[in-house]
Write a sequence for this structure.
């Protein structure tokens, strides 16, 4: 009886101190770091969590404490490694049936768009619908053309006040807005292309397996 009471008091103390977490809360624990972990690190953390669940099922406080400490120590090590790359910005990508990657962006703080990632495009390109969405004065804007997918397309040159992808944001981004609608281009590129006028200034990597764009600011 005395031992059982001690165990209950010990577990109550762990709960109060935040050392012991219920399984539902633990499911969201350190997800931002684990999402960036290596396969080996994720396997290690998954094994630790399974060991903790087994310990909880046993009801033995000493076993629970040991399993919890192991998980905490391993999470700390993973976090420390990932913090070394904290300057990296990870942007999720969506792939279409053809394998092209698209990224969600916010233009000028309020206009949303889905742009196809094109590291060969010299500037950001937007479809003709953005003439209206961005309030572009086509009559007064410099005119030019862009070469994209199925040929040459008339466009106006604009400077986007801001362009944001997740935590990555740039200001005064050169862009080209198409003047005429083109169904074939729209079907392939969505709202346009994310080109080098945004990407320059970053070291960028496309992780095809994890479907993400990794941006690291150039020093």
């Amino acid at each position: 009886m005395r031992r059982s009471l001690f165990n209950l008091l010990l577990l109550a103390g762990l709960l109060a101190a935040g050392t012991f977490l219920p399984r539902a809360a633990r499911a969201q624990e350190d997800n931002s770091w684990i999402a960036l972990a290596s396969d080996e690190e994720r396997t290690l953390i998954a094994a630790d969590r399974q060991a903790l669940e087994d310990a909880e099922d046993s009801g033995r406080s000493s076993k629970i404490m040991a399993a919890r400490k192991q998980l905490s120590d391993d999470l700390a090590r993973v976090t420390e490694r990932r913090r070394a790359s904290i300057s990296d910005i990870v942007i999720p990508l969506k792939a279409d049936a053809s394998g092209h990657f698209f990224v969600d962006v916010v233009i000028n703080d309020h206009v949303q768009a889905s742009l196809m990632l094109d590291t060969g495009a010299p500037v950001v390109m937007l479809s003709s619908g953005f003439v209206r969405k961005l309030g572009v004065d086509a009559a007064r804007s410099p005119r030019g053309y862009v070469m994209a997918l199925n040929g040459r397309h008339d466009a106006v040159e604009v400077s986007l006040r801001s362009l944001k992808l997740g935590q990555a944001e740039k200001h005064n981004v050169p862009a080209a807005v198409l003047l005429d609608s083109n169904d074939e281009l729209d079907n392939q590129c969505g709202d346009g292309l994310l080109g080098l006028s945004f990407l320059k200034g970053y070291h960028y990597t496309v992780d095809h397996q994890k479907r993400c764009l990794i941006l690291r600011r150039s020093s």
In short: The chain is about 35% helix and 30% strand. Helices lie at 2-17, 23-26, 31-34, 39-58, 61-83, 130-133, 183-189, 196-199. Residues 2-83 form one domain. The mean pLDDT is 78.
